Amino acid sequence: MQEIFGLIKEKAEKLFADGSVNRVLGWKKGETEYDRIPSVFESAEELEEFVYDGFCAANLSKYLIRESREDGKIAVLLKPCDSYSFNQLVKEHRIKRDNIYAIGIDCDGKLDIDKIKAAGVKAIQSIEENGSEVIVHTLYGDKKFNRQDVLLERCLCCKGKDHVSGDEFILAQNRVDTTVKDRFEDVRKLEAMTPDERFEFWRSELSKCIRCNACRNVCPACNCIKCVFDNEDSGVAAKANVDTFEENMFHIIRAFHVAGRCTDCGECSRVCPQHIPLHLLNRKFIKDIDELYGEFKAGADTETKGPLTDYRTGDAEPSLISDRGGSN
Amino acid sequence: MQTEKEMANDIIRRSGVNPLKCMKCGKCSGTCPAYEDMDYHPHQFVSMVQKGRINELLQSKSIWTCLSCFACIERCPRSVEPAKIIEAVRLELIRRQGCNHLKSDAIPELLDDKLPQQAIVSAFRKYSK
Amino acid sequence: MPVKTTENGEFKPLIVAFCCNWCSYAGADLAGTSRLSYPADVKIIRVPCSCRVNPLFILRAFQRGADGVIICGCHPGDCHYTTGNYYARRRMTLLFSMLDYLGIERKRTRVEWVSAAEGVRFSEVMNDFAKHITELGENKKLEDLRCKKSLD
Amino acid sequence: MTFSYYPGCTLKTKAKDLDMYARRSAQALGIDMQELAEWQCCGAVYPQAKDEIATKLSSVRALMSARDAGHDLMTLCSACHHVIKRVNNDMATDTDIRMKVNNYIKPELEYSGETKVVHYLEVLRDYVGFDELAKKVVNPLKGKKIAAYYGCLLLRPGSVMQFDDAENPSIMEDLIKAMGATPVLYANRNECCGGYVTLENRPTAQRRATSVVSSAKAAGADCIITACPLCMYNLDANCDESQKLPIIYFTELLAEALGVK
Amino acid sequence: MHRIGVFVCWCGTNIAATVDVKAVAEAARKEPGVVFATDYQYMCSEAGQALIRQAIKDNALTGVVICSCSPRMHEATFRKTVQAAGLNPYMLEIANIREQCSWIHKDIKEGTEKAIILARTAIAKVMLNKPLTAGESAVTKRALVIGGGIAGIQSALDIAEAGYEVDIVEKQPTIGGKMTQIDKTFPTLDCAACILTPKMVDAAQNEKIKIFSYSQVEEVKGFVGSFKAKIRKKARFVDENLCTGCGDCTSKCPSKKNKNEFNLGLDNRPAIYIPFAQAVPKVAVIDAEACIKKKTGKCGLCEKVCSAGAIKYDQQDEIIEREYGAIVVATGFNPIKLDKYDEYAYSQSPDVVTSLELERLMNAAGPTQGTLLRPSDGTHPHTIVFIQCVGSRCDDARGKSYCSKICCMYTAKHAMLIREKYPDTDVHVFYIDVRTPGKNFDEFYRRAVEQYGVDYIKGMVGKVIPHDGKLLVQGSDLISNEQVKIDADMVVLAAAIEPDPTARSVATMLTASIDTNDFFTEAHPKLRPVESPTAGVFLSGVCQGPKDIPETVAQASACAAKVIGLLAKDKLLSNPCVARADESLCSGCSVCQNVCPYGAITYEDREFRIPGPKRSEIRRVAQVNEAVCQGCGACTVACPSGAMDLKGFSTKQIMAEVDAICR
Hints:
The complex is a heteropentamer. Chain C is built from five helices and four strands. Chain C is α/β, with parallel strands linked by helices. In chain D, α1 links the parallel β1 (2-6) and β2. The model of chain D has no long low-confidence stretch (mean pLDDT 94). Chains C and E meet through α1, β2, α2 and α3 of C and α4, α5, α6, α18 and α19 of E.
């Protein structure tokens, strides 16, 4: 990844030098060794702070909604999975494609600091990525991890290392495939539970919600000018959960609103301070859509009609759901 | 022992053919190059399997005379694929013990020195299990 | 919060029915004209088309104490607006599946296609749905617990 | 132009000529045919039933070897081409068969139909190009009236084989033209010769073979070319004496035209 | 401040017998915002309506709820009532306490309770009602007919007859369409030209009708009542106003070997030609690809012989802009190409022909002057085989899934005509089913069998083998359970018909919808069969689905009636309960546009103030064309931000209804 970092930086400098862009959207270091903040660099000098490593998980495409409306051209760095969100935003006319130079960059999976911390690592000084190893230097000595063991969940069911859009690509010679599980595995587990078990599962998860709106703010599909839940006129506006159903309602409707548009980038779950597995709601919709209406990958292109704005005369009836076996 | 209906269901499942798609136009039989060597013809296979008349088909000469030329599959306007049904009926029979149609000791007298290997291989695959 | 028991203590469910103006609402009218009864628990809201039914309405009804929600529209292919019920069908299928996934009883929601001529069917559908909801009992999982407490 | 090559059983025995001339011509045209190291007989008949798994394994192994070698898989015998191409299609489109075969073989990397299967003729058309081929002809077969016999296996079912227009193919006629000869069109060129039943039901095979050859003869052909050893045998051995025409592998004429016979 | 009045109707005993109407009025009066509530025996009576009007005035009501029968019964009545009292007609809600309450419940307590809830729900809704005004738009009193076949001509004639202007746009050099190529028509066997050409002349001579031949509609903008169309008039290199149709140029033209489209390529025509003798307009046209002058600059023979001076080699395409109130789609059909059906040897033998080609081979103006001869050698055929359903009723990618509907009848016609004219010719027809629903149709088919001895064989042909100048037809006879082989001289294929290839682009242009086969979709399959779902666009003829001539003409006239009904109006009043986009919330994502069945939504760039140094930004936002929107509400649910709402059924209103029921 080190050489990729170098290549990207070199490219960014060159783009500034030949004037083809006036800004670059990338990541810079935050307060900690594992905190990486999306950032707009406005000159080659500012690129000193630029960083690309295993913690640059943030999906930058959403920032383009604002940035692509600014003057001049902006270069953006897109990991393969980000390129889906990018396409989806182009499809929805939310970003101005002409003002963007999209660089597809290599990704060998992003690291989950919570998994590292869960292994009892404290007082982190620095983190070193070395091929399939991650070495955490702490005040109390080094701790080695197998990279695969500390990847974000979403990288374990990576949807592919190929970009679906981009003007140029900076890729490693040997591309690492991090896929080890089917992304619907966890959805299937939940489906196999009894309704009461599922209810308890979600009740305990969703009741943790503090309505901080981090999921909404990070989600590239949640890009409304004003969210219905913030709109006094919508009849559902609520700043905080007034009853136990409020958070259900918020999350169901949010998942419904992004259904057929969600690219499964997994940012919602990554940023949730309460660690609610929100991506399991989105994936349920994706799985249902795939099974009922044919496989659909939001953002795979910029033309295909989304499944909720399309239909077949022979579509399944809703009674399919109530006719499912089991209790209730 | 399976009933005819059960056999028919097995044949339908094994062949992957939906006989209900047939509109009974007879094009399969119209195009079949082995028609004259058959007692039951391709269109009859489709309708008899649909009706569950399997025992008659198991006795038929046709399951051995189908040339596997796929003309019926290619030309069927309803994508019914009659050749697959015929093969599924044949399998219904030859998968039973002792029902191999071609016995290996019968081979030598059938050979001539030009006969290609694939003639023998294919005959075994088609007619024996 | 609505009172959900009769004088002799039997459970009386609260059912909201969304009916499209052109087929199902007319079907309900025909049921009335033909004096075909169904439980008074069913309250109809008129919408132009089944595609006007927002998942928000359904969740709101549950939140406010409904025990069952049914959406009725024209039969697929007969939509007054040509395609509305096709979209409604996809939306509701996915929503219902999600509610099931969240552990909410899957028989509390239903979609039925009822034409303007199907007065008999409308009353049968409503009788059947009300029966199912009555069997399921009160919607403990989804109702507004806060309101319930204030009743105590 | 490098291909993994699957010759098949008959090309190692009775149809050595088909193979030999193909290799010589390929060399002349700059095609590198790399025979798969360990191939097994494809079975010569495509098992159509959904529950036939074992009979598809040898084809899948060949397909996997080609994939691992990183090449498209070239075939020459019509029967092998038919069987392997259709099994490949099953692996790509039928999840049930794919799962069962993979469970059985347990390969390191699951196989799901990635290999492209191309027939030698398709290589001539799509990779070499008939115009290019014509330029390399040193010995044009001027004046020869040649009937192409396609048979069933290369063409049908058209939706899977994707070889040529299943009812009105032209690939072999185009080859004949490229070699400087005159193609003869006749109606039975894509009708069955009855080859599969030659062992079991010779009278049918005789009737079919005669109808094919006589149709070509009536159209004025001097000879018939084919890509299939079974058709070759059948059209020759089972044709009525009065109707006989020379039956030749297309590769033999190709080698002759290219001057490498 | 809301001042709501509630009026509870007894409907005689219809309501009052199972609902305590006084209790309902009493309960309603206690609802917040209600200032007046009363009950009356018959609210819909003149006295009842007077009571409502008086109460509105006396109490300065801002909204009205009437608890009565179904709104489908009297909503319109009561709207007029409240309007007469000075209230906006949309400040009214009806609580249906008859059909959906008193008539279905027997227990008065239960009925009353439910009626109170229904009243409460209507009150909750009316509190959020907003005054709505139906939009008005002018109607341009002219219709555009796209396609000049029999369907288009008939629609145009009928519209013109009612006194309205009509433009016919036809892409060919002459109007007339497919019917000009047909020899005789079933089931009467009268000559197609004899009944069609007078209509073509009528159209040409009608003052109200303007024919744009050799032209295509390129763009349509606007909406019902006021469409704007751009028509490309292709250069024909002959001045239409000067040409007299004398034909001198065509006989002198040296470039003679060009496929004659009118005879389906069965013979040739010169580079400058008049499609056929009765063409309308009867004006020559130069085929630029065949013309020696156009290609090389040398020749110019036609210019020399033309005494009218009509030849204009440098003529350019012309774009004409016209306005219309209504559009008729009459784009028609074509037989499918048969190159994928070569088991029937269509591309291998000239003696295998399509049914339309046979029409030309039997027509007096055709390549053989009406004598049926084999295209290969010009001899009389003695055995002819007809094959039905070629490409129709197919499940595969080669053909069409539908029945082409006309083939059974025209094949019976062909068989009958051949047997009559050439009794020594054997005719065999392979069929799957013979479909003859139509007046005198089955009788016609039976005549072919019983009177003319046509041999109908139930079964399909598997292969046609050209052999020794003959065609060996091999097929199955399912009745006798045998494979039959017929040595035929000619084979005629009943090719499936498909919509004209322009259908798709015309549909896109008009935002009219088409089905998976490219046939235009009707607004309602049973009740609005000649209208497209897009207001102001009407369907005539085969563009909507396979039809024979009588059906086409009937539909064309029905279509004209609809157009006349529209053009007769001076102003169009639109339903005010339509969608509205809140620009401040719209993110321009296009999701609403994707689900709109009417193409009522377009996008515009608007400037918005934003915080920050830039102060403003341009955003793409949705606009609803209120004249086109029908108010289904599909967009409101598709829109995640709630920017799209439906007037009269707003999200807030429906939520209020839900809340009122669950209270």
